[in-house]
Amino acid sequence: MPPGSYYLTARDYEGAPQPGQLFCYYSGAPVTVRDGAYTNVGFNLIRIPQEAVAEASASSGIKGEITFQGELLGRSYLYVYKEPEAGFKGPGYFVQPVEKGTFRLRLPPGKYYLLARKRLKGGQFGPIDIGDHFNYYYGNPVTIEAGKVREVKIETITRLSMLEEGEKAPFRGVRGIVQGPAGKGVDGLRVFAYTTPAMTGTPAFFSPPSGADGRFELPLHGSGPYFLLAREAFGGPAAAGELYGRSGTEAGVTLDDEHPIREVTIHVEPKMLP
To answer: Measured between alpha carbons, how far is 203 from 84 in angstroms, rounded to an integer?
Structure first.
């Protein structure tokens, strides 16, 4: 495969999916393929469930359940997206908390992409880590018709480390330290990489949380430029008091074959609102 970012699925059928067939959307997507290296991925497949036909209703929408190994999965989230181009990152069109595993949601007629997520650490936003519950609805995009409610059953899987073990590609990206007001490293912050200087909307890449010494690693592909900021939370504007800071490089960070790794220091301070 040529170097780049890819979204992967595995299935045992061609054409329209049928109950009982196997499907999986790779939970670690997007997968970065680098020149001269292999990236290990693993697929944890589910069987496509039997679903009822859409029923007439005074309003349009969806109803259904989120499960894991056939049991209702409580305290999860249903994500509704209208477009696939952003890679299903961030809140999308709507996020529905699913407290006990079942849901009913009004939606205007149209096409939607549905995903279910439950993070072991809790919260609505962030990457899918090893052990988290996740799945992309096999029937995406879902077409909602006026005056009908469609049944949707999403069987989740967990991302398993044993499916992804193997040779790792050489690191390419940004490394560095997140420093607080006292000049000491700050743990638990993520570094976000954007492709525009405004650094708004959905980031192109983000790092795992910084370590106790403030160190972080942010894998990147392509040449950039990338514009970096560090903060505590995912999604939305920074809240008052949230540790937040931007890289001091106005031109952004660029990578090339001679410089595949860049070292940066990002200073953060509590966010002050107007």
So the answer is: 15
